[in-house]
Design goal:
ATP-binding; 485 residues; Rossmann fold; 5-stranded parallel sheet; Sigma_54_int_dom_CS; 51% helix; transcription; binds adenosine-5'-triphosphate; 16 strands; transcription regulation; alpha/beta; Two-component system NtrC family response regulator
């Protein structure tokens, strides 16, 4: 169906698109308000709707939902100004196929976009899969990850900044490579830089370059990444670690596309696309006044939050096969061993899993073909023990027998787990450790509260007295923290 609906309250936009698209043989209807849109949707069918997100009488996102509900097959392109790009990204999450920025700068590109949508060439799972495969990025089967990658694919070709958040080892850098590969910049350099790993002076010089003699040791002039990758993509990893002075300079680049080499006086222009990554919640860092708010809003145009491996543990077998293949190994995992992998919390996420598989393939003796629980690292067995205990402790407690023994073995497993974490710091992030500490607190409190109740024959006042805490606090521990038996 070659009917197109254009929704825009600016008459010139409607006129321009009608002229452009009718010349190409499409039939165009124009609505200038939400009401007119709904009227047209009642009487006509459309193959494509081009929708402005700001209308005097309607919210573009509500109209999008209306269109998708009435005409599920109708493709939707959101039309947006720079200030509403975030809304356009929301619209894509809600099912819009693409967005374009107004004023239209590249009419040819606009025509290509429209034709592609009509011919169903916009994007397919296959394209995404093969691009991901090309950069060694396993998407997995979980809907959350599929949506995230589809969004990443759709915004890859736009010049918007992207903020990628996720725990350590979740694949922020691989996702950034995927975005670069899916963009028109794919033949230009992709450069990743870890803002936490370099001193202030070195980071500044890496990004902006320096003039000869700018500082001791600057014997030659040197170009920075903003020059070298002016047409490429820059991943600023661990952006929360960037010093305030470099943050100011970066903000200037984002606002004006201009920068100066260290020690230089001539402004240079750059077109580098910036992707930022952080394992910390950058918004939280802003609230704690450790990161500039204005820079945060510039970077956070599109946020891609990668889930932890725990949240996608169903994909663990897929990851394992991938890493086995990467190591050219023909080993397999027994069902029991695979279940242990699935139930482990993977604080170091995919990186930790990849390292574990590599270690197993190098350590296994040549005779063995199947990995069993006995071959797995101790941390995985201990981690599973803790998980099981966590699960049991969240169920209503029926008996109080053996509580002390239970606490003892929990403390043993907990202590071992902590020691392992400390010895394997690269694979741990502190959020996980903090959760484990909370769990410890919870377990210890539970045991004390239960024991006090037993000794006080169920009398809460007496039990509170035994623990030397107020009745109020005892009630809180019992009720609020779900410790009632
Ligand atoms: N989806 C994935 N598919 C394949 N490999 C992955 C995936 N996610 C992560 N990895 C692998 O895990 C390791 C860590 O990935 P990456 O460096 O992208 O994580 P990160 O989130 O950027 O980590 P950090 O926060 O420590 O910088 C790499 O070896 C990468 O290849």
């Amino acid at each position: 169906m070659d009917n197109i609906l254009v929704v825009d309250d600016e008459q010139e936009v409607g006129n321009f698109l009608s002229f452009l698209l009718e010349e190409k043989g499409y039939r165009v209807s124009v609505a200038e308000s939400g009401k007119q849109t709904l009227d047209l949707l009642n009487d006509h069918k459309f193959g494509l709707a081009m929708l402005d997100v700001r209308l005097p009488d309607a919210n573009g996102l509500d109209l999008l939902k209306e269109i998708k509900q009435k005409l599920p097959l109708c493709k939707v392109i959101i039309m947006t100004g720079y200030s509403t790009v975030k809304t356009a990204v929301e619209a894509i999450k809600l099912g819009a196929n693409d967005y374009i920025e107004k004023p239209f700068e590249d009419i040819d590109q606009l025509e290509v976009q429209i034709d592609a949508l009509f011919n169903d060439k916009d994007y397919t799972e296959n394209t995404i899969e093969s691009l991901a495969h090309g950069v060694g990025f396993i998407i997995g089967q979980q809907a959350k990850m599929k949506h995230l990658v589809t969004l990443a694919y759709k915004i890859a070709s736009k010049n918007v900044n992207v903020l990628i958040e996720g725990e350590t080892g979740t694949g922020k850098e691989v996702l950034a490579r995927f975005i670069h590969q899916a963009s028109a910049r794919r033949d230009q350099p992709f450069i990743g830089i870890n803002c936490g790993a370099l001193s202030h002076a070195l980071l500044e010089s890496e990004l902006f370059g320096h003039e000869k003699g700018a500082f001791t040791g600057a014997v030659n002039q040197r170009s920075g990444i903003f020059e070298i990758a002016s047409q490429g993509t820059l991943l600023l990893d661990e952006i929360a670690e960037m010093t305030p002075a470099v943050q100011v300079k970066l903000l200037r680049v984002l606002e004006t596309r201009e920068f100066m080499r260290v020690g230089g006086e001539k402004p240079l222009r750059t077109n580098t696309r910036i992707l930022a990554a952080s394992h910390a919640n950058l918004g939280e860092t802003v609230r704690q006044q450790q990161f500039r708010e204005d820079l945060f809003y510039r970077l956070d145009v599109v946020k891609l939050q990668i889930p932890s491996l725990r949240e996608r543990n169903k994909d663990i077998p897929l990851f394992v096969s991938y890493f086995l293949e990467k190591n050219s190994s023909s080993l397999t995992f027994s069902d029991e061993a695979m279940n242990l992998l699935k139930n482990y919390s993977w604080p170091g996420n995919v990186r930790e899993l990849a390292n574990t598989v590599t270690q197993l393939t190098t350590l296994m003796d040549g005779e063995k073909t199947t990995i069993t629980p006995a071959d797995l690292p101790e941390k995985i067995i201990l981690g599973n023990e803790i998980q099981t205990r966590e699960k049991n402790s969240s169920q209503p407690v029926q008996t109080t027998d053996d509580d002390t023994t239970d606490l003892k073995s929990f403390l043993n497993a907990w202590e071992n787990h902590m020691i392992h974490s400390l010895e394997d710091l690269r694979n741990f992030d502190f959020n996980h450790i903090e959760n484990q500490i909370k769990e410890l607190e919870h377990r210890v409190e539970t045991t004390f509260v239960k024991q006090a109740l037993i000794e006080a024959d169920g009398n809460r006042k007496e039990a509170a007295h035994l623990l030397n805490i107020s009745q109020r606090k005892f009630r809180y521990l019992l009720n609020e923290k779900n410790k009632e038996d």
